[in-house]
Design goal:
This protein is mainly alpha-helical. It has two domains: 3-89, Tyrosine recombinase, N-terminal domain (DNA polymerase, domain 1, Orthogonal Bundle), CATH 1.10.150.130; 116-294, Intergrase catalytic core (hpI Integrase, Chain A), CATH 1.10.443. Helices cover 56% and strands 4% of the residues. A hairpin with a 4-residue loop joins strand 1 (161-162) and strand 2.
């Protein structure tokens, strides 16, 4: 079995059976290609069937020597494990060489969040005199109101807006759909954007149902959303490293701070596992600890 054939089969498996997005598939394939490049340089002639635990341990040591962070190492190892499990399922190999391969221990990284005041400051700093200003304002309100991933935002459809019921339908990871409540404020900003800007655009055929568009009537890129947010952060001198995902983190943290139960937040975020959602309870504890350290007389 050749590497190219097995990688192509793995790619098809991720797309057709797992239903993963192009970005996720590319990440998995990049992990396999890193291993393949290493083996070609250090263990020539090693086919997928000939890979053994010692090869993989040498690969991990090589990643260490290159200064790859433990978090990135863990993600790369996870991708390689998925690949060999696929080969085992397909009966291309007799045993899984990754079964005893350990990932580096990593601490759980708590994401940066914005305060309510910082979010208001960002949104209010949008220049709505510019043609795209109202669109950008609606985007920020939607990100914060619904806790969307940036990929979910750029793919949000007009036909999935149920404003009378107070919901939007979101297409999340692995094409899983979920209903997410949307605030009246976000609804108001979206309606103003649709009436005052979107209806003036000449929309390209494949973007007729896409909500947020650029001035050429095309779907916005993920990079464009990052650029809008980073530009506004510089504009208000916000000394935090933020991205569209920061609004999602802030959405979840503010909900839990306000007393929302973890299961509800899990549902709204579209997390498969509640363990992923639990990070926001840790964030809440960190905030409490900081508050005590700052204000308690015995601190």
């Amino acid at each position: 079995m050749k590497w190219d054939d097995s990688i192509k089969g793995f790619e098809d498996y991720l797309r057709l059976e797992k239903g993963l997005s192009s970005n996720s598939i590319n990440a998995y394939i990049n992990d396999i290609n890193k291993l393949l490049d290493f083996l070609r340089d250090n263990f020539k002639g090693t086919t997928p069937q000939k890979v053994r635990l010692n090869h993989l341990k040498s690969f991990v040591e090589w990643l260490n020597e290159k200064g790859v962070s433990p978090r990135t190492q863990a993600r790369t190892i996870s991708g390689i494990k998925s690949y060999f499990k696929f080969l085992l399922i397909e009966e291309k190999i007799n045993s899984d060489p990754t079964s005893l391969l350990e990932s580096p221990r990593i601490g759980r990284k708590l994401p940066d969040i914005l305060s309510i005041e910082e979010i208001d400051l960002l949104i209010n700093s949008v220049d709505i005199e510019k043609p795209e200003g109202q669109r950008n304002k609606a985007i920020l309100e939607t990100l914060y109101s619904c806790g969307l991933r940036v990929s979910e935002l750029v793919n949000l459809k007009m036909s999935n807006l149920f404003f009378e019921q107070g919901y939007i339908k979101v297409e999340g990871k692995s094409n899983k759909e979920r209903l997410v409540p949307i605030s009246n404020r976000a609804i108001k900003e979206i309606n103003i954007y649709i009436e005052g800007y979107r209806k003036t655009l000449k929309v390209v055929p494949n973007a007729q149902d896409i909500l947020f568009l650029n001035r050429r009537g095309q779907m916005l890129s993920r990079v464009m959303i990052f650029t809008v947010i980073k530009t506004l952060a510089i504009q208000i001198n916000l000394n935090k490293k933020i991205s569209p995902h920061t609004f999602r983190h802030s959405f979840a943290t503010h909900l839990i701070d306000g007393g929302a139960d973890l299961r509800s937040v899990q549902e709204m975020l579209g997390h498969e596992s509640i363990l992923t959602t639990e990070i926001y309870t840790h964030l809440n504890r960190e905030y409490l600890k900081d508050t005590i350290n700052q204000f308690h007389p015995r601190s």
